[in-house]
Each structure stands twice: as structure tokens, then as C-alpha cells.
């Protein structure tokens, strides 16, 4: 686990336990042993803080925030141990003298639990396979980035999905039907208030309005920022490069006035760069020599 993650209600992150392990080892071991033997978890250990992180520059409603859960480190330690048990243990039931097939035990988990990403990936993989099947049978055809490249109709990252398909009524109906079926099976439904649709400039205004009503989501001309960077629009590389400079300048404001040593300055800059959104940093090749000089 990452030792530098945000603090939970206990105000002690994993880095504290790692650095003070010689002191807290016995207490942590007894705590875990007590839970495994009695199956009882203190209410205070199971508490969680929720923070709302703005996804846009000027949030105006609840949908413009992303909820993030901060669990206690002791709870995470126990969850990690349980995860190992769940992923490595299988069971079967004896009924009337006959054994059933082997199966894995499961239970519901809240957001922020170390097990949650693994369970979500399993569900999202089902949707991805259905979309691939739809691509192969040409019911939901995607796009090609080059003539010899394969067609793709979706991209996934975390709990976000980007769909590519033809702007016609038949395809939109099939996409709606597929997402509805997935929602009924997995209990994961598309949030229409947060979902956006962008059409090709080749479509007519009347056609775009009809398809927008079918998809029941917001129509946009350009996507906003995602993971701290611009994904479309004019001069995307240059705008993303400017974001890196602006981010550095905001976070390092006042550091010169503190008369830090060269070593301290280097440490501070590294800390800022590490916390910069990875998708933004990945476009460093688009930075001009003038911009690189400013960063130095």
C-alpha cells in the first residue's frame, strides 16, 4: 500500500506504521489477531471520511464533484488480509451426500475498500466483452485511427467509459439497450446528468437533437478537462503544456522568498511534479524549449 495516501479518521497514514513498526508491531498484530479470532471490528475503526473533489474549475452543482473515501489504516490492513483470503480460498457445499462445484465467497464492499477496484474490474470487463462482441457483429461499429488499425468502440479508465459509434437512430437504440441490460445485471447504471455526447460536424442539427433525446445525456461541442488535461479542442498539446507551467507556478508560489537551499528547492519541485496529474505530465514532449527553460 502507498504510505503517502490521505489520512483517515485516525489521522495516521501507512507511512506512520512503516516508520514506527518496531514500536507498533505488537499492538497491530494483537489487533488483527483479535479480529480474526472474534470477528468483531470496533466501530471507530470502521469509520470513513468522505471528501468532495471538484472536477471542474467552477463547480456549480453536486455532479461537478467526485466523492473520495478515506478509510482508517488499521481497516485497510485487515481488508488486505481478507482480500488474500477471498482471492485464494474456494468452497463447495455438500448437499445430500453430493458435492457442488467449487465457488468463491463474496460480500458487498464500500467505496475506498482495497477490494473494491478488483470487483469493479470484473463487472466492467463484462460490459467491455459485450461491446467487443457488438463491434465484431457490426451492431455497434467504432472508429479507426488509421487504415490498417482495428476498429474500437470503447475505451475505459477507472469508472469512466468513452464510447465511439455511428450517429444513427438504430445504433443509439442498441447502445441504450446494452447499457440498460448491463445496469440490470450489475446494478451499475449510467449517470445521465454526468454523461456527455459529442457529434461529428457532419451531422445535421436536427439529427443531433433527435439522437441527443434518445441517449438522454448532455450535448457538448468540446469535452472538458479529464485527469487534469485537455483531450480535444484546438491546440491541445500547447494548452496542456501551459497547464503544467501554471500548476508548477501555483504550487511553488513563494518558495523563492523563503531562500531555500538548492537541495531544498530540488526536493520541493520533485514533490510538486510527482503530485501533478499523470496524463498532463505525459505530454512533456510537446513542451517548447522556452517552456522547459521556464520550468528549470
UniProtKB/TrEMBL annotation:
Q: Does the keyword Transferase apply?
A: yes
Q: Which UniProt keywords apply?
A: Nucleotidyltransferase, RNA-directed DNA polymerase, Transferase
Query: What PANTHER family does the record tag this protein with?
Result: NON-LTR RETROLELEMENT REVERSE TRANSCRIPTASE-LIKE PROTEIN-RELATED, RNA-DIRECTED DNA POLYMERASE
Give the domain of life: Eukaryota
List membrane-spanning regions.
none
Recorded GO molecular functions are: RNA-directed DNA polymerase activity
- Please give the Pfam families that the UniProt record associates with this protein: RVT_1 (PF00078)
Which lineage is the organism of this entry classified under, starting from the top rank? Eukaryota, Viridiplantae, Streptophyta, Embryophyta, Tracheophyta
This protein's name: LINE-1 reverse transcriptase isogeny
Supply the InterPro entries for this chain: DNA/RNA_pol_sf, Retrotransposon-Effector_Assoc, RT_dom
Is Magnesium among this UniProt entry's keywords? no
Q: Where is the Reverse transcriptase domain?
A: 94-198
